Amino acid sequence: MQPASITDQIANCEREPIRTPGAIQPHGFLLALDPALKVLQVSDNLARFIGLAPEQALGQPLAAIIGGEAAEVLAWVMEEGGLRERPSYLATVRCNGSEFDVLGHAWDQLAMLEFEPIADHSGAGLQQLYPLVGDFLNKISDTDSIVELCRLAAVDIRAMTGFGRVMVYSFDEDGHGNVLAECLANGYDSYLGQRFPASDIPRQARELYVANRVRMIQHADYTPAQLVPAENPLSGQPNDLSFAALRSVSPVHLQYMRNMGTMASMSVSLVVKGRLWGLISCHHAEPRPLSFHQRTVCEQLGQILALHLKNRNDSDELQFRLEVRRAMVRVLGGLTQGADFIDNLRSVLPELLHFARAGGVAIVVDERLITFGDTPSNAQIQDLTAWLATNRHDDLFHSAHLSARYAAAADYTACASGLLAMPISRIHQHYLLWFRPEHVYHIDWAGRPDGKQSTNGMLSPRTSFAAWRETVHGASAPWREAELELALEFRGALLGIALERAEQMADLAEELGRANKELEAFSYSVSHDLRAPLRHIVGFSDLLMETAGSDNPERRQRFLANIKDAARLAGKLVDDLLSFSQMGRAALRPIRFSMADLVRGTIDKLAPELTAQRIDWQVGPLPEVSGDPAFLQLALYNLLSNAVKFSANSNPARIRVSCEQLPGETVFHVADNGVGFNMEYVHKLFGVFQRLHRMEDFQGTGIGLANVRRIVERHGGRVWANSTPGEGATFSFALPNTDIDTD
Questions:
Q1: What single string gives the DSSP state of each residue in 105-146?
Q2: Which residues does the UniProt record annotate as the domain Phytochrome chromophore attachment site (predicted)?
Q3: Verdict on whether the full-model pTM lies above 0.85
Q4: 23-117: CATH, from 3.90.1310.10, 3.90.1140.10, 3.30.450.20, 3.40.50.150
C-alpha cells in the first residue's frame, strides 16, 4: 500500500482528537470525582506523587487519596465557591509530604482536580508579579503603536516568566503568523519580522486557543500519563480535557518544539472580538515549570493587551472609514450636479480613484467606455466585463490576485493585479471597475512553509526554521473589509440616484404628456374658441360698414354691442390662458392660514358679480391649512363662481362649503343644487378648455377647473367631482396635512 499523501496526512492532523487525548502531562496528576467526591478516574502517574497505585484509588473517597485535612479544605472551597467550566485555583494543600497547587473545574458531570507540585525555580514570584503588571498598564496607556504595544508585552512577560524567547505575532487573513515583536535572551535565534505558515497551527488547535487562553508545556520530551479508566465512567465517552491545564498535547507539536530547539513553551491567546488575533508565544531551550499564578498573570496581561489592540484597531478602522466615507460623499455630491448620470460620473473620476485607493478606474455602460488613470486597454476591459457578466453575479466582485481567477488578466498585471468590480445596473452590463497595480513584495518565512515531510506514512513537522525569502508577484494591495462594505453602500447610493433620475424622467414624461395635451387643447382653443369671437367682430364690423349710410341707429348700436361682447370674450380667453400658464411657473409661498377666512373673503369678492338671484350660502366649520393663500383663493373663486353660475336657475341656489379629515389629508367640498353634469364625461372636467355645457347656456372659457386642478396638485393634493344631472354637483379637493414643497 502506498503511503498517504502529505495533503491527506495534514487533513488527518486536522482530525486529531486534541481535546480528548486521554492523557495529561506528567508533571502533575489528575483526579476525576463524582458529586459525592468519590474518585472515578485518575492519571496513571498517581503513585509517583501519592505512593498509591491508580487501581487502589478508584472508587475511594477523596480523603483516602490525599488525606483528610487536604480533602476537607478542597471540599469546603468547592462547596462555597462551586466549580466553573474554566479551571480556577482552589487551594495549596500538602499530600504525602509535598505541597501542591490544586486547580479545579467542572465538566461532563465530573469535578476535575489537577494537582501541580510546588517547586523552587527561577522566575518572578508572587511578590514581583503585581508591580510588573502595574508598570505594564502605565506603559501601554501612553502607547499608540500596535508594534510598540506588542514589544512592551514581550518584555514584561519575559521578565515575569524567565523564558528565553517571547514573541508576539498576529495572524493575517490566510492564517499565517507575522512576528511583530520579540524579547530574547542571549543565544536565542530571532524571528522578528518573519512569518510562520498557517499550517503550523491546525484549525482545531486555533479553535482551542480561543476557548482556552493559556497553554503550558513544561517538558517537550515528556511521556503522557494516561487516564485510568480511559473513558468517563458516567458518560462512557472520552474525557474532554479542553480546559485542563495539564492536558497532553499532540505528538506532532512536541516534535515541532524539539525541531525548533524548544523544550518548554507557553502560549497566551490574544482574542479580539471573539477571533484569534494572535499569540504571545514563549520558548525556552530547557524544561521550565511555571506556577498557576504566573500563568494567570500572563493570561491577564494578554487580555489587557488584547483590549488595547481592539481599541487601537477600532480607532484606526474608524479613521480609515471616515476618510473613505468623505471621498464617497464628495463623489455622490458630484453625481447630483447634472442631468446625465454618466457625464456626472466622468466629472468625479479623480474622486472615484481616491475612494477605492486604486490606480485606475473604468466606467462601462454598454458600448460606452470611460477610463481614468492606469487601466487595461478598452478591448481588455470589454472582455473582462463580459467574463464578469457570465461568471460573477454578486453585488460586488473583488480580488487582489485577478490573474488567479481570470487567466487573461495575466497580460496586464502591472496595472490591474487587483480588481474591484461593481455592477451599477440590475438589467444591463453596466460596471464601475477599479484597478490596483501589482505590488511586488517579499515574505521572510521562518523556514519553508512547505517543509512538512512524510516518513513511513506518518506526517512529521518541518525540521528547519532558517529564514527563507519568498517573492510574491501578480498581486495587489488587498481590499480591506471596510472598503468592501463602503463600496456596497456606495453602490446602493448609486442605484438610488439612478432610480431617482428614472423617477424624475418618468415624472417629466408624464408632465410633458400632460403639457402636450394642454398644448393640443390650446391649439384647438386658438383655432376654435378664440377664432369664434374674432369672427363675430369681423362679421359685425362688415355689417356696420355696410349700414354706415343708413338712418337706423338702433341697428348700428346692436352691431357695436355684439362687437364689444365678442372682444370682451376674446380678452377673457387670453387672460385665462395667461393665468393658467402662470399657475405652472410661479413659486408657491406657503403659510398657515384659516380656510374659513379665505372662503368668506372669496364670497365677498364674488358679490359684485352676482345677479339678483337668491343664494343660500352654507359654510361649515373649516380648519387652518398650510398653503399659498393667493393661489388657493383663485381655486376657491373658480369653484364658487362655477357653483353660482350653474345654479342660476335654482331658487333659491344652495351652495355648501364643508370639510372632513381623512388620514394624512384634509378634504374640502363645494356642493351646489344646480344643473349638474353627466358622470360619463367627468374625465374631461378638469382639462384645459373643456366644457360639458353649451356656450349659449353657460358662459365660460373652460380654463377655470383646469386652474383648480393645477393649483391643488402643486400643493401636493388631488381634486375630483361627483354629480347627478339636474340635482347639482359636488367638487372636492384634498390638501396634505404636511408642509408642502415650495418649488
A1: EEETTEEEEEEEE----SS--HHHHHHHHHHHHHHHHT---H
A2: 145-303
A3: no
A4: 3.30.450.20
